[in-house]
Specification:
By secondary structure, the chain is α+β, with helices and mostly antiparallel strands. It contains eleven helices and nine strands. The radius of gyration is 19 Å and the shape is flat.
Length: 258
């Protein structure tokens, strides 16, 4: 199988000089977390919700709102790209190693894009999530500061964190939630009050309280169907009201037949 059989041909792209706030708005509107960046219709980078969160939180941008920053300030200039004839093995390797988005390029022009979601349709395994999920969880509480949650994500290379309250699953917070939250804070709080506001900026202010979850008995194929139906990148695995693990798109990509 090659890229041309997997790619989404309708490429969502944004100009490098577009405002960062517009990038966030596009991500929310189209329910995506990664976007191709172009200049003169040619691919020059990719930008993710995590990249935006880091750019908005950077000291050099203290007091600078997302409406005053550009896509080029947050985008990754080094990124993997594929052609329509790139084979599945190389696609899976690139998706596992980098930003999770692969522009499909012909003569420097984007003709398609591949994400983990596009490839997950190939998963047919009936292996239970108990055999796949990550048991060593990184979690936060509703009263943890957002800057702490972001640090946990960076330190452990994860894009989403379960939110536990009294040991029970109360929500989930992802990089897109942090990017949106920081953008809102920086646009509504005066520059001189932002340091204090960040200290009061808590996970409960931005977390998603409706969580799509699975059980240890849920099969890999069923997990893929849940992810695609609800457009989520991870599934907390629960037994009763307690979380026992988490499974991500990356975990499930390992089950794609080679």
């Amino acid at each position: 199988m090659k890229a041309k059989e997997l790619m989404t041909k309708d490429v969502l792209a944004i100009d490098k000089d577009e405002r960062l706030q517009t990038v966030i708005d596009m991500m929310v509107k189209h329910r995506v977390s990664k976007i191709v960046v172009v200049e003169n219709k040619q691919v020059v980078g990719v930008v993710t919700d995590g990249d935006i969160a880091d750019e908005l939180g950077a000291l050099k941008n203290k007091g600078v709102p997302a409406t005053h920053l550009h896509a080029s300030s947050a985008m990754r200039r080094k990124y993997p790209a594929v052609t329509v004839d790139t084979p599945l093995d190389q696609i899976l390797q690139a998706l596992s190693d980098d930003a999770g988005i692969l522009p499909v390029i012909h003569d420097k022009m984007p003709v398609g894009v591949i994400t983990a979601s596009d490839v997950l349709s190939l998963v047919t395994s009936t292996k239970p999530l108990a055999d796949i999920m990550t048991n060593h969880l990184h979690v936060v509480s509703p009263t943890d500061r957002v800057i702490h949650a972001r640090r946990v994500m960076l330190d452990h290379h994860v894009e989403r964190l379960p939110v536990l309250d009294g040991g029970k699953l109360a929500g989930i917070v992802g990089e897109i939630d942090i990017a949106i939250g920081l953008s809102r804070l920086k646009s509504t709080v005066a520059d001189n009050h932002q340091p204090a506001a960040l200290q009061r900026f808590l996970v409960q202010d931005i977390m998603q309280q409706t969580v799509i979850s699975a059980t240890p008995e849920t099969t890999a194929q069923e997990a893929v169907q849940l992810m695609r139906r609800y457009d989520v990148g991870s599934l907390p695995v629960v037994r009763g009201d307690r979380i026992v693990g988490i499974v991500t798109r990356t975990d499930l990509l390992k089950l794609v037949p080679r």
